[in-house]
UniProtKB/TrEMBL annotation:
Keywords: Ribonucleoprotein, Ribosomal protein, RNA-binding, rRNA-binding
GO biological process entries: translation
Originating species: Solibaculum mannosilyticum
Protein name in the entry: Large ribosomal subunit protein uL23
A single Gene Ontology CC term: ribonucleoprotein complex
């Protein structure tokens, strides 16, 4: 079993992810080898909420160029976590609204 801080790397803060806060939907960057069960347990442990659903997706790195040097940004895994209706909101995101 993994430690919660190793599963959840950082929150994803974009316009689209902020629009989902009213429906208790939050986005996180997670470890590439984390399962949906690992992610749900980590969110419940770190924020003290109840998770209803976890959706994951892999985001491939994009090609970037600087002059004649080129390379790719890092690939990462994104998790979209939906909380149960009777669960409280995550305070971390509430200050950003």
């Amino acid at each position: 079993m993994k430690i919660a801080q190793d599963v959840i790397i950082r929150p994803v803060i974009t316009e689209k992810s902020m629009a989902g806060i009213m429906q208790k939907v939050y986005s996180f960057e997670v470890a590439k080898d984390a399962t949906k069960i690992d992610i749900a347990r980590a969110v419940e442990e770190l924020f003290g909420v109840k998770v209803a659903k976890v959706t994951t997706m892999h985001k491939n790195g994009k090609m970037r160029r600087q002059g004649r040097t080129q390379g790719y940004t890092a690939s990462w895994k994104k998790a979209v976590v939906t909380l149960k209706p009777d669960s409280k909101a995550i305070e971390f995101f509430e200050g950003m609204m």
